[in-house]
Design goal:
- This protein is an all-alpha fold and about 140 residues long.
- It has one domain.
- The chain is about 80% helix and about 0% strand.
- Helix 1 runs antiparallel to helix 2, helix 1 crosses helix 3 and helix 1 crosses helix 4.
- It is rod-shaped.
- The protein starts with a helix and ends with a helix.
């Protein structure tokens, strides 16, 4: 009887130990997955930022090319008044669209960022992880 009780106590302790190890491993996997999600999101933000910057640079280069050509044509006495109006508009537009006038990139990852990466997979994973990682 005492042997049975001692065995049961040892067995229960072993079960508790395995449960604790499993929970620790699960928590470690969730943290690792969350870090992966954040890294993917940061990579996406980098790519989007680069694309916006490249498009902006191409637009700005185009406006500059138009300005040079308009100046050349003005020297030949060609009327460029409509083009000059367009150039002013384009320069104003570019000043408003310059990605560097917005907040600079950070490593912060928000729920909205994760939704933008993949509304179905990453965001749902984030919500699951957040629920599991959040203290009750």
């Amino acid at each position: 009887m005492i042997m049975d009780a001692a065995y049961e106590i040892e067995r229960q302790a072993a079960v508790e130990q395995r449960k604790k190890e499993y929970e620790n491993a699960e928590a470690r996997r969730r943290r690792e997955r969350f870090e992966q999600l954040k890294e993917v999101t940061r990579e996406r933000k980098l790519g989007v930022g680069m694309e916006r910057w490249e498009i902006f640079q191409r637009k700005r280069a185009f406006v500059e090319a138009v300005k040079v050509e308009a100046a050349r044509r003005r020297e030949q006495a060609e009327d460029t008044s409509e083009t000059d109006i367009w150039i002013r508009w384009a320069e104003d537009y570019l000043a408003r669209q310059n990605p560097m006038t917005e907040a600079l990139p950070t490593t912060e990852v928000t729920e909205e960022d994760l939704r933008e990466v993949d509304q179905h997979f990453y965001y749902s994973e984030y919500r699951k992880l957040k629920r599991k990682l959040s203290p009750d």
